[in-house]
Specification:
Blueprint lengths: L22 E4 L4 H12 L5 E2 L11 H11 L3 E4 L7 H6 L1 H21 L4 E5 L28 H21 L2 E7 L1 E3 L12 H16 L3 H11 L4 H6 L12 E5 L5 E6 H13 L2 H8 L12 H4 L4 E4 L4 E3 H12 L4 E5 L8 E2 L4 H4 L9 H14 L1
Parallel strand pairs: 1-2, 1-3, 3-4, 4-5, 5-9, 6-8, 7-11, 8-12
Antiparallel strand pairs: 8-10
Helix pairs in contact: 1-9, 2-4, 4-5, 6-12, 12-14
Length: 381
């Protein structure tokens, strides 16, 4: 590496999160980034550095380099990502692999060059093999083929994990990673084609309830806030076309039998802050490297131990079960059907959370409570 691109000396004085530190939250407008931002603000942090995508294009290497060289950042939370559900992953694979790799490559590399010692990288549970044993332990990474519907996104996130591990080994950084399960909550994406399962199901039931009561003014306001309703969905819901005024039918993708684990985004935020606040020794010990500093010479066996934490609730349910809970919360009394011609995705995704619970973190939201809070937020918008 040319001398001009060599990392600055690492700043050891700002290892733990503290209100005086300058913390850059990349992706502060996203669901997870905004939850972390809210939590840090509530804890009295005032030196939080943020940039919108219009202010800083994280896929632009020179722009990211200039930002880090100018801002004297102490710590980074890398929550910025291109995300979406099965539909978006299937139809836009190039955007998912390109944007995510560019964002993490630029942020991690330029943070290192600027002397940022501690960084937290947010991945996804889709990094695990499609048929991984359940619940999925961190060491199952790279032990089998991925689910094809989100393989480009998963490969980008695996690359981010390995990038953090590589910079730790070579430069003595303290770059950590967390792999969340399926997240939901305030700030989620409720677009009916590009969203994940909970917001998509919640919005469909809400629109169906409005259609059943012929509250088309509420449907119009919903579209203004959360985006247009695709014609085929509008027809099923009795909102548009020849079906307008007919009893709405909520159609959900897949068989409804796939099992998923869900975690409220505020629990994810608390886990991120918890992991960032672990001492270096506690973090390394939790990974299975007893008191070994990250930059020391590690054996082949030690190098094979993944350096990240699964973050989840430890419980899963079928898609039909969570849909039933949402249907009850929303108060929709009409028909639900499943389109089994559409993919289920991975049959089951449940994370083993032994490692994160071993360092003292537990979720606080139950699924019913979290779904109710999310629907309350949705209606308030």
């Amino acid at each position: 590496m040319p001398d001009s691109l060599m990392p600055k000396p690492m700043n050891h004085h700002h290892e733990l999160l503290a209100p005086a530190n300058r913390i850059f939250i990349a992706g502060h407008r996203g669901m997870v980034g905004s939850a972390i931002h809210r939590l840090l603000r509530a804890k009295g942090f005032e030196n939080i550095i943020t940039r919108t995508s219009a202010e800083l294009d994280l896929t632009d290497q020179q722009a990211v380099r200039s930002f880090f060289q100018a801002e004297a950042i102490d710590q980074v939370v890398l929550a910025a990502a291109r995300v979406g559900g099965i539909y978006a992953n299937f139809h836009y694979p190039a955007e998912f692999i390109y944007a995510n790799q560019m964002i993490q490559n630029n942020v991690i590399h330029q943070a290192c060059l600027a002397g940022v010692r501690r960084l937290l990288f947010l991945g996804s549970s889709c990094i695990y093999p499609k048929f991984a044993p359940q619940p999925m332990k961190e060491e199952y990474l790279l032990t089998g083929i991925l689910e094809m519907t989100n393989e480009p996104y998963a490969i980008a996130k695996i690359s981010g994990i390995k990038m953090c591990e590589s910079y730790n080994r070579q430069y003595g950084t303290d770059y950590r990673a967390v792999m969340p399960t399926n997240l939901y909550g305030p700030g989620d994406n409720f677009h009916l084609e590009n969203s994940h399962v909970i917001p998509a199901v919640m919005r469909k039931y809400h629109l169906a309830k409005c259609a059943m009561s012929e509250d088309f003014a509420a449907i119009g306001k919903d579209q203004q806030t959360f985006g247009p309703i695709p014609p085929e969905i509008g027809e099923m819901l009795g909102i548009t076309g020849s079906h307008r005024g007919k009893p709405p039918v909520v159609q959900l993708w897949g068989s409804g039998r796939a099992r998923r684990e869900f975690l409220h985004v505020d629990d994810m935020a608390s886990a991120c802050v918890h992991v960032m606040n672990l001492s270096r020794d506690a973090y390394v010990q939790a990974l299975g490297h007893p008191s070994e500093p990250i930059e020391s010479e590690l054996s082949t066996a030690e190098l094979s131990i993944p350096s990240f934490f699964n973050i989840g609730s430890g419980r899963d349910c079928t898609i039909s079960e969570v849909a039933g809970m949402i249907r009850e919360i929303v108060g929709f009394a009409g028909e639900t059907c499943y389109n089994s011609e559409q993919p289920d995705g991975t049959p089951r995704k449940l994370l083993d959370t032994t490692r994160i619970s071993g360092v003292g973190w537990r979720p606080s939201f139950g699924l019913q409570e979290g779904l109710q809070a999310t629907y309350d937020w949705y209606c308030a918008q």
